[in-house]
Amino acid sequence: MGEEAKEEFEPKIVGFTCNWCTYAAADLAGTSRKKYPPNSRIIRLMCSARLDPMFVLKALLNGADGVFFSGCHPGECHYIKGNFYARRRIAAIRTILKQFGLDDRFKSYWISASEGEKFANTMKSLTEEVRELGPNPMRGKII
Amino acid sequence: MKGAELKHGDLEGLLKGLLEKGVVDCLILPHRTGKSVSYMLVKDADKIESSASALFAPSFSVNAANLVKGWTIKEKVGIVAKSCEIRAAVELIKLKQLDNESVLLITTDCSGAYTNQVYTEHYAEIGDLVDSAKIKELEGKGITIRESCSICENRLADVGDIIIARGAGDDLVVAGLTEKGEGALTALELSLEDKDLERAAEKEKIAAEAKAKLASLPELNSLDALEEFLQDCIVCKNCRDMCPVCYCKECFFDQPLGDPIGGDLLNLAELRGAIGLPTGQLFYHLTRVYHVSTTCVGCGACEDACPKDIPLTRFYPVITQKVQEIFKYEPGKDVDEPLPFTAYEEEELEECLR
After folding, report:
1. Is residue A53 part of a domain?
2. pLDDT grade, residue B177 (50/70/90)?
3. How far apart are CA B291 and CA A83, in angstroms?
4. Predicted ipTM of the assembly
5. Is the pLDDT assigned to residue A54 strictly greater than 90?
């Protein structure tokens, strides 16, 4: 893809965030007027462990250019161990995605409720990374 | 482990004994009808005959564990089957689809199996029993074992409660692996002595051959390759139904979201411009491979079940093995080992997050 086309391309990113940390961090980023790209559509989960890897597959297969997941730092889960379970599931789905070269489009982070700035910075770097990758080839496919 | 030496001819008595002495209430074991071998559920010991020719027959029809999936009954069921089938049964116990107290798992040695159609068709050449030399000889004639068997590293019996190991000629060793298994053999009044059935050298040889075979298979390493691989899939979900470890009572892919019709399909078509029909092959198989990622025993029942002859062995066991590696988990090995998705370590897997 040429440089010009890359600049025109606005990636669509689907994010799954935990209500108790990253979702609040996004709020904090907003109330503290941190600027970050508007490419992500955030879906709130009540816990990291609510992330069914099927969500990630469905988003990627339906043409999302990037998918991210973000939850509480390990050891800080509101429900004590939800993110430990989530971490295992993410490791499994990442292994599967990697086999088919899809893992670059799936990112996972730990961002706590107080890390509004980290959230804004993460969204910036994520959007740039996905922009580099270009549009998801699944978009135009008839599947 | 403790065991006893027997001959092929003693098997019939051994199995009859399990029923007659009340060690089990019923038995599920391979049963021969002429050239074909399938399973039977026996209550009456007199119905058991010529066991060796059926027990070690290199034929795979269904995974025996799939036959008892969801049997949460009080009566004790003895299951005599190959290693992959017993491994699947162990996974079902962990998934609470089978009660450990009401099963007696008896594993027989396997040298690799033919699909039951191939076995019946070529019975004259294959016969009742095979060993690795015979399998190689038949391969030269174009009669090959199932692909999942050719990449299987666990052919020798080493799981379950009791193992029946084959020696040279018609020698056998029957040994108990668990307290339950030893108790059953004691009840049969066998004189048990210490046996070493590790067979490390033999296992290494099988594993090396299996790994070499796996490396020679085409690898599915891109989405395009997977799309091409699955293009004939009609989403009949027979691979799911025949999979011993796919156990959900209400499968996502039987519900409107996973199996869209009518207006839901139109919405999808509007979203994407056009969709293939039947739709969702990639979504279905990628989701299913995640669902069985830690429990897949690589028995190949999915491939046998596919009406479109998609070589699913190149997908399911191959991908799930990679997931099992990151958790250092071997499905079906130990009833007491927790399933990876039900356990965690506080510090682990950070390399998987980025």
Report:
1. yes
2. very high
3. 19
4. 0.94
5. yes
Put simply, the chain B residues between 205 and 244 with a CB less than 8 A from any chain A CB are: 220-223, 225-227
Q: What is the mean pLDDT of residues B318-330?
A: 96
B327 touches chain A (CB under 8 A): yes
**Which CATH number fits the domain that encloses residue A63?**
3.40.50.960
Instruction: Pick the residue from chain B with its C-alpha nearest to A96.
Output: B319
Alpha carbons B215 and B330: distance in angstroms, whole number? 20
B289 in contact with A at a CB cutoff of 8 Å?
A: yes
Q: Is residue A139 part of a domain?
A: no
* Nearest C-alpha in B relative to A82: B344
pLDDT in tens, B212-263: 999 999 999 999 999 999 999 999 999 999 999 999 999 999 998 899 999 9
Q: Which of B217, B223, B224, B226 to mutate to test the interface with A (most CBs of A within 10 A)?
A: B223
To the nearest whole Å, the CA of B261 is away from the closest chain A CA by: 15
Domain tally for chain A?
Answer: 1
Domain span at residue A109? 9-130
**Quick check: helix, strand or coil at residue B353?**
coil
- Rounded to 5°, the CA angle A91-A93-A99 comes to 105
Residue A3, pLDDT score: 54
Name, in order, each residue with C-beta under 8 angstroms of B249's C-beta and a sequence gap of 6 or more.
Answer: none
Q: Is A140 within a domain?
A: no
**Best B342, B352, B354 residue to mutate vs chain A (most A CBs within 10 Å):** B352
Tell if the CB–CB gap between B323 and A95 is shorter than 8 Å.
yes
Residue with tokens 């958790």: B327
- Report yes or no on A33 lying in a domain: yes
CB contact under 8 Å between A92 and B290, yes or no, is yes
Buried b (16+ CB within 10 A) or exposed e, B126-140: bebbbeeeebeebee
For the CA atoms of B153, B159, B164, B165, the dihedral, rounded to the nearest 10 degrees, stands at: 40
